[in-house]
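User: Hello, beginner here. Can you help me understand these amino acid letters and fold codes? It all follows right here:
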Amino acid sequence: MKAKQTAFDFDFSFEDKKPEENKLVPPPIDLIQQEPIEVDVRPKVTVNANKEYKKASRGRMKISDMAARVDLIEIPEDEILFSKQYYSIGAVTEMFKVNHSLIRFWENEFSILKPKKNGKGDRFFRPEDIKNLKLIYSLLRERKFTIEGAKEFLKKNKHAEKKFQTIEALKNLKSFLHELKTGL
């Protein structure tokens, strides 16, 4: 009678292979003697003297970096802004220098934002929506409101948009006067 073979009866040794295949090859000596290199993998936000902004790729932004970016938004004047009926989400993100996902998130959170959507689902923002986005951006980034606080502020203050426009006009006047003063 023949006995059944089990897994323990098989020889799993590698002795029948060539000796050079069984050996571990050490790394070259050059690599061993080098010092380790430190790599910083954190995303960075940089703003240079020309107010050019380099977008961080991932992660949350520091509050100090957020405050530095507030002055960098580039929303055209009302005459230019209202010359077009609709702006794509890409154009809006370039104006505010934020990600598409943040604009979509704000659209879901704030009821005053109502962009039009085409059959594909692409968002098109009216100039009024951009003005509302600027108000939301100001509340969240400049005045450091939370999302819930900004919602409550907009709900309680029906004239918040008028107040915001007045504040913006005063800021423009202040910057003009600073430029005039430096020119003297």
Summary: The beta strands are 46-47, 53-54, 87-88, 116-117, 123-125.
